[in-house]
């Protein structure tokens, strides 16, 4: 399973690139706004800076809800860097845009997907990636991860090529479940990456080994 970082924060992205554990990036308008407020940089600057440090796919969302607007924005975004993937919301206009963009060679990530059938529609229209949001389903007292299991099974049954990005990840258990289900990608917030790295027994083990090393020197 590939690990993407769900962030527009350049420091977080650079840190994970240095650790070699990140294969791509996903952003959304809220994450871009946070980075704009943190750094004062413009939307274009933020996207270009991310593209300057990440070789893998970088998803950036369109803001238009109209078909023509989506296509125009998608072309502009794709011209920023060759690894930009255009995030398109799961709507009727969105599906139309995905089909057109596939035909002109622009990769897409259909976002705000909450049911397996929405994922199938995205795949049929030619999406490169589909992003089911599991945490937001958990937030309304259902089990978001269940849709990943269903989508993986359905995509296998019908040989859909669209890759599944487990999105709206909130904790390490989401990642473990996604790995067990054979999801293609998980897009993970920085905080969850740090939780994945840490284990109290690792810390305790390091402390004890250091203490014993100090004693063994005398
Ligand atoms: C995915 O591409 C989205 O950016 C993201 O995972 C949304 O997560 P949230 O529900 O924590 O905002």
TrEMBL record:
CDD domains: Transaldolase_FSA
Recorded catalytic activity of this chain's protein: D-sedoheptulose 7-phosphate + D-glyceraldehyde 3-phosphate = D-erythrose 4-phosphate + beta-D-fructose 6-phosphate
Source superkingdom: Bacteria
Metabolic or biological pathway: Carbohydrate degradation; pentose phosphate pathway; D-glyceraldehyde 3-phosphate and beta-D-fructose 6-phosphate from D-ribose 5-phosphate and D-xylulose 5-phosphate (non-oxidative stage): step 2/3
Location relative to the cell: Cytoplasm
PROSITE patterns: TRANSALDOLASE_1 (PS01054), TRANSALDOLASE_2 (PS00958)
Residues of the active site: 87 (schiff-base intermediate with substrate)
Keywords linked to the UniProt accession: Cytoplasm, Pentose shunt, Schiff base, Transferase
Function: Transaldolase is important for the balance of metabolites in the pentose-phosphate pathway.
Family to which the UniProt record says this protein belongs: Belongs to the transaldolase family. Type 3B subfamily.
The protein's name in its UniProt record: Probable transaldolase
Organism: candidate division TA06 bacterium 34_109
């Amino acid at each position: 399973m590939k690990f993407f970082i769900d962030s527009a924060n350049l420091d977080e992205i650079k840190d994970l690139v240095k650790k070699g554990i990140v294969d791509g990036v996903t952003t959304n308008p809220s994450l871009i706004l946070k980075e704009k407020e943190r750094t004062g940089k413009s939307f274009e600057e933020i996207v270009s800076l991310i593209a300057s440090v990440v070789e893998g796919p970088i998803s950036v969302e369109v803001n238009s809800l109209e078909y023509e607007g989506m296509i125009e924005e998608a072309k502009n975004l794709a011209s920023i860097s060759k690894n930009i993937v255009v995030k398109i919301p799961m709507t009727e206009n969105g599906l139309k845009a995905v089909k057109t963009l596939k035909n002109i060679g622009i990769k897409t990530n259909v976002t705000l997907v909450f049911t397996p059938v929405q994922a199938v529609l995205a795949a049929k229209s030619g999406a490169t990636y589909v992003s089911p949001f599991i945490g937001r389903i958990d937030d309304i007292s259902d089990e978001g991860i269940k849709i990943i299991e269903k989508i993986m099974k359905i995509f296998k049954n019908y040989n859909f090529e669209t890759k599944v990005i487990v999105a709206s990840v909130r904790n390490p258990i989401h990642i473990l479940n996604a790995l067990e289900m054979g999801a293609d990608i998980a897009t993970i917030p920085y905080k969850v990456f740090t939780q994945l790295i840490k284990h109290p027994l690792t810390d305790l083990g390091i402390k004890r080994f250091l203490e014993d090393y100090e004693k063994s020197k005398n």
